[in-house]
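User: Quick sanity check before I run a bigger batch. Here is a single chain. Can you write out its predicted 3D structure?
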Amino acid sequence: MGNRLLGFWRRLLGRAEGARGPATSRLRWRVPFASAVQAEATIFLVLRRMRAPLIVLIVIFAVSVLGLRLIPGQDAAGAPYRMTFFDAFYFMSYTASTIGFGELPNAFTAGQRLWVTATIYLTVIGWAYAIGSVLALLQDRAFRQALALQHFTRKVARLREPFLLVAGYGRTGELLAGSFDTLGRRVVVLDIDAGRIDSLELGSYSSDVPGLVADARDPGHLGVAGLDNPRCEAVLALTNDDEANLAVTMTAALLRPDLPVIARTISPAIEDRMHAFGTPTIVNPFDRFGDHLRIAMRAPASFQLMTWLESGPGAELPERGRPPRHGKWVMCGYGRFGREVTEDLRAEGLDVTVVEPAEKEHGTPTVAGQGFEPDVMEKAGVADAVGFVAGTDNDTSNLSLVAAARRVNPSLFVAARQNLPSSAPLFAVMDVDALLVPAEVVAHEVFAQLSTPLLWRFLQQVPQQGDAWAADLVERLTAHCGRHMEELWKVRLNRAESPALTGWLDSGEATIGDVLRDPDDREQRLPIVVLMVLRGDDAVMAPGDHFVLAPDDELLLYGTPPARRAFSSTMLVDGAAEYVRTGRHVPTGWLWRRLTRAGRD
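Assistant: Done. Predicted structure follows.
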């Protein structure tokens, strides 16, 4: 039977593979179907292991019932009596299940009691064998994986809200899942590490986060995770394996070319291969760190603003660092990270000396040796340098390098690379001026691109506005909302989203300062800052309170949750909008309008 069922599945899959139609449509249908068939087949094959204990129990039960039927007994008058099959079945049912009502319908003879004694021991042996098989089955890894796959598939199918498909639940995935959960966005997670998926149950998420232990390189796993679901908003390839991220990018591009894909990589070669599949957004944390370092050199206030807005809700305003723009820098570790940062520093016209355990021919001044050795520090000129980068792939080495460099030159601007989340307390104690945590760099950029549609465009234009403009905006944000990151959201001033403001906007008199009055006390201004106004293709960055709003403007807003709710009332409730505009209280309910009209009459 098992072979026939598996043959049926194979024939069904074969017909699906040979179905006519566009290749993409066939693939979209086959990927989740094939995974579902695999799960069903696995469960069937494992359940087949229960066939022997079930047969043993059935045989023991049948022989016991037959014996009771055949062995003669006596009724209350001493006349011969044979139990019916129903009475024998009833007696064995409550006896084998250890309930034990007693002998029926009459007291048993010695022969019947001898037979029942034998059947009792037989059923105990049969139950022990069956229970042991069940326990072994529940511990079977393939069986548990199949059950988890079915449970996961059902949870994804029940999703009724848009969701993000996250491949890789490392530190980056954990940060993003928490941030998007705070915004009320749903997330579906795949990860090859069972421990990480188990940690989803321990996370303090407001909504259920479906997670599956699976290899994201398998298109079938992406299919059951909702790749072909129309509610899937984007795919995030965030594993620590560049090849796996490439596979996810490729699968998403081939099966869902309309879906945004954001992938992480530290390899320029992998990045080029990713770009061969559509237009995915590639985040290279090493390259981003160098770019950020250059922005911090040129415009420290702009870098402070960008870093803060990318950090997510609740983040504290970071300190405004000032990397030196002139002088010599020393780079310890010339791997992928070291090469990226060295190129960026050289692009700023800075002199960079590289420290490597073994001197290599890479066209840049190099000192051979371990960077924390005193003679190597002296040869590299750390005492005369203005900046120092500890960029190896070992946290212990990087901490040693930072300590040794500061011992030689306490005034150094120190940048370091943190590889493991567990090392965070040690780097915090070292008080590094610029710290690269690749997981956080990727998480911040992905959050900026997906959290609010206008935020990424705003951040892209911040460096062009000048450092004085950024410093002024930081002061405005902290003055209105404090030093911890509040909410970011987008509104469109049209009849659908802000019907109560339509007439005011048409009049050409709706300034930002007037519209943002408190609907409960118009003398107070809501703690909201307009970061950007998008009017057609033109973007106005951080306009002041005298800026006049127009119909169909899109606004990127920053403010507290109570202020957001209050502004929503102004946008939607005619009475609130009238009070904010003129100071008059207008009745909005039917009863109050009738009473007001009656009072006037």
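The first helix runs from residue 2 to 17.

User: Great, the batch can go ahead then.
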